[in-house]
Amino acid sequence: MAASLLTDDLILEILSRLPARSLHQFKCVSVPWRDLITDPTNRRKLPQALAGFLYMAVSNNRRIHHHFASVYGAVAPFDPALHYLRPNKDEGITQVDACNGLLLYRRYKKNKATPWIEDACHFVVCNPATGRWVELPHPPQPQEPANSRNHTTGLAFDPVVSSHFHVLCFEYNFPGAYIKGVNIYSSRAGAWSRRDSGMVEKVILCSKCVYVGGMLYVIGNLKHINGEYVLVGVDMEGKVWKTIRVPYG
């Protein structure tokens, strides 16, 4: 009865503060709430859960086209090309990671003389459902070699736990390419921090990152032990490190 006294604007304001999972559960409260949540005009005000795949396709004229394939077969609620992330033709953009509806991109100035090297790289985190994005400051430590594409970087975000996200950029020890530390960006603090590796083992990372249960995981290789693989995990403060042996065969 109390909820019936609230105006639609007040209900939208309350619903906009909920995680996407809870929002979809509230569609079952009543028909008016369902219509309010699913109304296209309210899309930008409410969190959206995206379930699908982003992929690129190259046409005959070698132009790259961005696409989104929805798991539910629905039309993409955003433009997969994300033109607003590329303000001019001299900049390129590469998708680095995705986590629970947020996308991590690396934006860079194109180097015409040496196209395999990215000049002036920086990270951008984007919510394609709302069109909002934030450009991250450069990490505190310089990355080697100059081509930062070779560095493993992951995005950590759980809207059920918090509206804030983290970006973890692993730092390598050259030569050898073993992990020596990690640079962590916190959207809550709006700044980077650095932590030395808490592992005894020398691990070379060799896969994309996955965020589960407050830890960012990535497959690594113990090259000095017959190429044995391990799962490396680190928490969002860089204080807790763990390695889990991957079963062989």
Automatic annotation (TrEMBL):
Location of the F-box domain: 6-46
Pfam families recorded: b-prop_At3g26010-like, F-box
Domain of life, source organism: Eukaryota
Xref: CDD domains: F-box_AtFBW1-like
InterPro entries: At3g26010-like, Beta-prop_At3g26010-like, F-box-assoc_interact_dom, F-box-like_dom_sf, F-box_dom, Kelch-typ_b-propeller
Protein name in the entry: F-box domain-containing protein
Species lineage: Eukaryota, Viridiplantae, Streptophyta, Embryophyta, Tracheophyta
